[in-house]
Amino acid sequence: MTKKPFHVPRRRVIRGLLATTAFGVSSKLWAGCSSPSTTGTVTAPTGEGSPAAAGGDLTMGFIYVGAKDDYGWNQAQATGAADVQGTGVKIVEQASVPETREVQEVMRKMIEEDGAKVLFPSSFGYFNPHILEVAKEFPEVQFFHAGTLWEEGMPKNVGSYFALVDEGQYLAGRVAAQVSKSGKLGFVAAKPINPVLRNINSFMLGARSIKPDIKMQVIFTGDWALPVKEADATNSLADQGVDVVGMHVDSPKVIIENAEKRGIFSSGFHSDQATLAPKGYLTGTSYNWGEIFKQYAEMIRAGKTLMNGGIPHQVIGGLKENYIKLATFGPAVTDAIKTDVEATSKKIVDGTASVYKGAIADNAGQVKIPAGKVYNITAPELNKIDWLANGVIGKTS
Amino acid sequence: MALSRSNWRSVAEAIAIPVGAILAAMVLFGCFCFLYGKSPLAIYGAIYKTAFGSWRAFQGTLLRAAPLMLTALCTALPARLGLMIIGNEGAMVMGGLGAIVSGLLLSYGSVLPTAAQVQQPLGLPPLVVHIAMGLAAMLVGGLWIGAVGALRHYRGVNETISSLLMNYIAIAFLNHLVEGPMRDPSSLNKPSSFPLPEMYKLGNIFTTRIHYGLIYGLVACAIAYVLIQHTTFGFASRIAGGNVKAARVAGLPVGKLAVTICFLAGSCAGLAGMVEVAAVQGQANSSLITGYGYSGILVAFVARYNPLAAILVATLLGGIINSGGILQRTFNMPDATVLLFQGIVFLMVLFSESLYGRFKVFKEPAELTPPPPVTPAGSAAAT
């Protein structure tokens, strides 16, 4: 009686009870008010696969991991979404959604509240487990993810789309080599992982197809969005006499602006950044997601779905499919260079030229792709690239 | 009498000031919405509906609140002892690493299982694996922040700075492990560890969308509250937090207290990391770096380091996060709008700290206070 180690004062209990009751009562009130509209939206997804049949616009939801105007990956997706809007398609968008349960909640809200029948959660990390989990809950909604992650055995209502940038970067590399006076290129990259290495290598292969002894210094910053390190890297490249800098980071903005300040050229990535550097921007590979989104919209309107097999689960393309394009040319790109780009681009599209045509050696001199061997950009062997092409100064580890 | 005549005023003050601060924040944000050409009332209605309007909506709020409760404790507990720890993010990441390492070891016997090992998991019961993962996460997270406490006590290193810097070390360590020694070779574009087997993933509570992390959060906050308010350990910590010298004179083991409470704080954040690995991601990769740790600091501040208040504040913040999407999708406002709202609320609540004791209404009238011994009352009443 005298010693109560866990004594809770009565007033505290009462205060807590009061607060809980108040909260409970008020939330019940509100729930009562909102239930009609909630039930209205919950019953909505009954349109069985072909929503277009019901008339009206098809609602597509787009989810981005960062800001829509980041001059990078997210902007490329948002530009594609804007392209498809209005063509019988209504879009809903949400930006800055992290790769946690948050994105699952956003997907559910888009489906239940906005009536989205097709979702494009665009960040790489959204796929597993988030898309896979929500897709199981809503078998009538189609999920399209930017990547090549879909495999047999995963939910039928999930599909992957991807654009391979190798050919675009090859062309951009050719432009860079023709503009460069110092014969030294630079590249700022996030991580030494396969897609980034392919990007660097195709840029280098393009450059070497013009000037066989040109060199390129690569700097890995270690992560996708490190603006300070990216600026430092650009500066140090400029100090070393590099006069064209390329990049593969989430948002190329910092690098391009810094290069412009230092009076050197830059070759962009993801989306069109010409406005950021009116003097020094050359060109760069920019995704043309709108093309893919429009194709999806058309197929869905024709009654095709992922579930009925009308839409393939893997959609991959490059220059030929018009999934990528070169960004606006800057003033330093002469007409002669433009003609060369056009001619090379034609050759790549009709198959007479190729990015990965042996012999290709890595930067330690070891032949990685033997002479006579030609890989199409979709070849699975290319996903094993873990080396830097000859002429690239840098290490993968 | 629950509310004795002498204390109702301070109770009213403790409720009125935070509520007033939130109302003031809503007015400010409402002005912003108005300037942006949107009706503030419609926006608040929508926010309420998406965050608290129905059970289904409220689940989304609780889901977001769950990790914040745990990470908030990482700041709230040491703060009672006068230590300002902001290493929540790092402790959470380390906890996540501890969880995935122990989880993979218990599933396959190796963090880099061969194809044969993946085919033939060890098959331990899920409960055992969960407990082991939780304990490992708490141990690693605890050691992480415990080290901060030890550095503070034995070497005099400023705990705020060291815990902040240790966040970067933890994140770099995570990136190093998932990109190198622990990398699943099939994770091409997003380097990750091997995934946990599906059977060991932490499920949802009954039929809701809320994972068990919420229960961990609620239980941890409750335990922390009892520990701080109703045990001799908590009492000693609060004494040391009030005046270290007095505590030393009184013979309290200040160093042990500091290290212990830092260990407990870190283990809470570590547990949040385990939940993120076991219930959400299923593997370790850079998605573990979510900012929950930093949000937890805010929750702890606003809750005035009270673990129970942290539950409410985390729920409120969860609601604001939950409703963020509606501002973008229905009202076409920029994605930063919700951050602005969150920021205004926190600034107002933090600012309101300075208002305690400034309103006459909440002051005990001088004649009601019992005679001499209560010293501050006399001087306060005189002002």
Topology diagram in text:
The complex is a heterodimer of chains A (397) and B (383).
Chain A: H1 10-42, E1 58-63, H2 73-84, E2 89-94, H3 101-112, E3 118-121, H4 127-137, E4 142-146, E5 158-163, H5 166-179, E6 184-189, H6 194-208, E7 215-220, H7 227-239, E8 244-248, H8 253-261, E9 265-270, E10 281-287, H9 289-301, E11 314-317, E12 324-326, H10 335-350, E13 356-357, E14 360-361, E15 367-369, E16 374-375, E17 392-393
Parallel strand pairs in A: 1-2, 1-3, 3-4, 4-5, 5-11, 6-7, 6-8, 7-17, 8-9, 9-10
Antiparallel strand pairs in A: 10-12, 13-16, 14-15
Chain B: H1 8-35, H2 40-52, H3 55-80, H4 88-108, H5 115-119, H6 126-155, H7 159-179, H8 213-230, H9 232-242, H10 244-249, H11 254-281, H12 292-302, H13 307-329, H14 337-352, H15 375-382
Helix pairs in contact in B: 1-2, 1-14, 2-3, 2-13, 3-8, 3-11, 3-12, 3-13, 4-6, 4-7, 4-11, 4-12, 6-7, 6-11, 8-9, 8-11, 8-13, 9-11, 12-13, 13-14
Q: Can you tag this structure with a few keywords?
A:
heterodimer; A: 397 residues; alpha/beta; Rossmann fold; seven-stranded mixed sheet; six-stranded parallel sheet; 10 helices; B: 383 residues; mainly alpha; ABC transporter involved in vitamin B12 uptake, BtuC
> What letter string, H or E per element, gives the SSE order of chain B?
HHHHHHHHHHHHHHH
Regarding CATH, which class of chain B?
Answer: Mainly Alpha
Strand segment tally of chain B: 0
- Proportion of strand residues of chain A: 15-25%
Tally of structural domains of chain A: 2
Number of strands of chain A: 17
Which radius of gyration of chain B do the C-alpha atoms yield?
23 Å
Number of helices of chain B: 15
| Class by alpha and beta content of chain A | alpha/beta
CATH topology of the largest domain in chain A: Rossmann fold
* Structural class by helix and strand composition of chain B: mainly alpha
Mean model confidence by pLDDT of chain A: 87
Give the helix proportion of chain A (percent range): 25-40%
Task: Please give the CATH class of the largest domain in chain A.
Answer: Alpha Beta
Can you list the strand order of the major beta sheet of chain A? 12-10-9-8-6-7-17
Distance between the termini of chain B: 30 Å
Level of helix content of chain B?
A: 55-70%
Biggest interface: chains and residue counts?
A: A-B, 50 and 48 residues
| Measured distance between first and last alpha carbons of chain A | 68 Å
Number of helices of chain A: 10
**In one word, what is the shape of chain B?**
globular
